[in-house]
Amino acid sequence: MKITILGAGPAGLYGAILLKKANPLHEITILERNAPDATYGWGVVFSDRTLAAFQEADYKSYKAITDRFVLWDAIDVYYRDELLRCGGHIFAGLARKQLLALLQRRCAELGVSMRFNTEVADVAALDGGYDLLIAADGVNSLVRKTFADIFKPSLVPGKARYIWLGMEKVLDAFTFIFRENEHGLFQVHSYPFDGTTSTFIVECDETTWRRAGLDAASEDESITYCERLFAPELAGRRLLPNNSKWINFVTVKNATWRHGNIVLLGDAAHTAHFSIGSGTKLAMEDAIALANALDTHPDLDTALGEYEAERRPVVELFQAAAAESQSYFENVKRYTRLTPVEFTFNLLTRSRRITYDDLRLRDPRFGNIVDREFERRYWAGQGRSIFTLIAPPPMFAPLTLRGLRVANRAVFTPATTGQAVSGVPCTGDALELARLAQDGAGMVLTEPVAVATEGRITSDSACLHEDEHLRAWTRIIQAIHTQSPAKVAMPLNHAGWRGATRPRGMGLDRPLRDGAWPLVSASALPYTERSQTPRALDRAGMEGMRDVFAHSAHLADAAGVDLLILHMGHGYLLSSFLSPLTNRRDDEYGGTLEQRMRFPLEVFDAVRAAWPHEKPLAVALNVTDSVRGGFGPDDAATVARTLKEHGCDLLVALAGYVVPQTEMPYRRGFLTPLSERIRNDSGLPTLVGGYLTTADEVNTLLAGGRADLCLMLPPQETRTRSRSAPTVATDAREARATADVREESMPEAGTPAREVRRVEKKE
Question: Is the pTM of this model over 0.90?
Answer without folding.
Answer: no
